[in-house]
Design brief:
This protein is of the alpha+beta class and 101 residues long. The chain has four helices and two strands. It has helices at 6-19, 29-42, 64-70, 78-81; strands at 54-59, 93-98. The chain has a two-stranded parallel sheet.
Length: 101
Amino acid sequence: MRGLEVDERLTYILDYLKTANLIPSNKDLLAFKTFLGVWRRRADYTPETYSGEILLFRTRGASILNELLIHMTPGRDAVMDSLGWSLVADQNLNIISVPGQ
């Protein structure tokens, strides 16, 4: 990849992700660049503690995320169970399991 331009490198990675079914096949280079930009900006974001009530609806169906969480070792922490919301919830985090995927 050393001899490739940036867009060529990104296209190679994008094609690999599509082939591995990690992203939808209809995503183009512009969408991939937008995602990467958002991902970079996300790294700079530090959420503040929220003291109000947080009501999180989680599906209990067979989604990829639920499958990964269900197959984790016993004792997985609250951060995983709350999809990260326990990091900002001061005290009032209520998780409700609903049917779905």
